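Recap slide: NAD(P)H-dependent oxidoreductase, sequence and predicted structure.
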Amino acid sequence: MALDWRTKKVGLIVGSLRENSFNRMIAAAIPELDDSIVYESISIADLPLYNEDIDHGDGPEPVQRFREAIKRVDGIIIVSPEYNSGIPGVLKNALDWASTPTKTAALRRKPVGLVGATPGVKGTILSQQQIRQTLEATQAFVLPFQKMYISQVMDKVDLERRLLTDEATRKYLKRYVQQFILWIDQVPSLD
């Protein structure tokens, strides 16, 4: 793939630390859907618990790396499960680190898309509502009107190969990613 100045770079954040997470499988499928986009996996695994006492200057080294990774991409897609009808604690912690310092926060004015997968039948509706609320407080620009909830995910992946295999889900996910790329182009007009 030849890169040019118009090539989009999208960060992928998985809201789970579990190695065999369904959401990690979904995130791994996203780069396969459109090879005109460059993707970067942005890990939240090494972030310390948010503590304002250590959030000064550029913050601890893992926080610096995390913030820099967000700043160097054109947009972020968060792929997250739902824990106990809400946002996973590790993801909330990461979003808190990315929301400071307020005037130069990594998430400030950053386009963000949300995808979530769960074995349950309701998808990640409640988790995504809470993630949206947190992102609104950070002044991020969450893709409006589009939702990507993947329910009964265990029927849509090959657990041994750790792959998304359901063609209908791949189609909807590709459409969501295409809408997100268009959203990245719209965000400058919101200034």
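The chain has one domain: 9-186.
The mean pLDDT is 94.
(End of recap.)
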